[in-house]
């Protein structure tokens, strides 16, 4: 692979051809075109690089792949469909004999392409479904197509586009390559059938891909004698020699500079941000050092995901809360500046107020409003700032006299307040923002128990030109929407999902993941679905509330939470709709879900998070996987070896 990368780094390619799921073939015509073979095993979460200039990645897990027929190659969870029947009369049938499938997301990458405009041809033929009067003709495959991150085909149906089953159709697009890379992505957005003709047969299907220059001519290939002198072996040898010599010289220079003490530290954040208008108040480090009594431990009022928080008193008598970024924090310069910019541009009663910041050398501090609240002896926090909404823990821990008691009207007010804050972020503010890390510890309460959303270090601007944001995954797994946690597909509906989990916690008085015993793990959302199927949803309510609460309002709130937690992001409501439903001004949409589909979705989620849990445990010495303060206890529970799922299926 290293040899391939070295070779690719010095060769410019002017075309791309892939026979998806099939062997290498050449199509003869006015211009002969060779399509590389694509027969490698691709599992539920895989990346494969070809021997030429392309690669593919596949994400997703077919929940019932054991029932696939023989014409599904399923060695090592490879998803390739091979047409075993006679190929219908069509042009270039060798391209449509095989096809690559994926349950959720399938992405092809073309590397080292010369910059310019390309004509991208996508070859499709629906060969899985059949014609006729049987149920096998009822299948519908619907997916989206993205090229270079842009949605070019929404709700694409191969049969409709081709005009029939087993009929080829070539979709043509123009794409600009500006950095040598072409990305083509096929994404299943949860539409179409998932059980016809077989359970688990759904998601994108592609037969072949080609890309050729649209507005420029590829150079004429060199004569044989020249080509031989630029063979991969010769080029690789030259490149290896140059790289080795360059590395030696660089190490020598660095060694000399180090010994002479001339090799300084990296640029400070202050240097990095010269000329950047942060649009907020500025404090000196000396001011904040004096205000917190040199960051005295006695003034420490909390420990956030990115550092400690101290209470401070300015010379004018203003009481403040100072968030000091830890030198070991995962929040880097980008996240720090992001938090400053986001909060300073957003003003709302349910968002924490930012007074300013301090940037001196590598000192990174944020200055927030300070609010006094009742002492919480459980965590030995006295006169704390806006207390974290982690009151669920407070209600479960510590002696009876120290537990924080919240009646239902207060909890409902907190839910509505958080919803209003998110509605402002998503729909009402000048900047459309996706918070990405809505959870109990990132919602603060003032002395009147008014909720305020905080910690914008992971927030992302929701760019209206894009239907979604593909990004590195960051947040807390227990609150992350499945499409984001598993595929990095981020929209404001990810915040809606997190809000739904949070409302379930508030209503039930339990953490999202807790443990009944050493043998059985308990997942709050799964429990809510089971209770609803059994008609016992009221059993989810926190028993500490007794019977003195508005039961109609409680049921409405829980049903809104379940709607927000729908596995399909497009079904989730907007936050403005959530506010209306919580306040009783709009009816709650009640969805009738398929228990089997719910089981399959949950099992797929469990397999995914099991792999993440194992990876995080193995890599614990190197730090967490996400950009937040996530531990293994934040993950969804993983219980693949217990009888839990069998018992759950029996109950359905």
TrEMBL record:
Catalysed transformations (reactions): L-seryl-[protein] + ATP = O-phospho-L-seryl-[protein] + ADP + H(+); L-threonyl-[protein] + ATP = O-phospho-L-threonyl-[protein] + ADP + H(+)
Keyword line: ATP-binding, Glycoprotein, Kinase, Leucine-rich repeat, Membrane, Nucleotide-binding, Phosphoprotein, Receptor, Repeat, Serine/threonine-protein kinase, Signal, Transferase, Transmembrane, Transmembrane helix
GO CC annotation terms, alphabetical: membrane
Taxonomic path: Eukaryota, Viridiplantae, Streptophyta, Embryophyta, Tracheophyta
Any Pfam family the entry gives: Malectin
Organism: Prunus yedoensis var. nudiflora
Enzyme class: transferase
Bilayer-crossing regions: 235-258, 373-395
Protein name: non-specific serine/threonine protein kinase
MF-aspect GO terms: ATP binding; protein serine/threonine kinase activity
Protein kinase domain boundaries: 295-563
Localization annotation: Membrane
Residues the entry annotates as binding ATP: 323
Entry EC no(s): 2.7.11.1
Topology term for the membrane: Single-pass type I membrane protein
Keyword Secreted: no
Claim: Iron is one of the keywords in the record: no
Gene3D superfamilies: Galactose-binding lectin, Phosphorylase Kinase, domain 1, Transferase(Phosphotransferase) domain 1
Cleavable signal peptide: 1-17
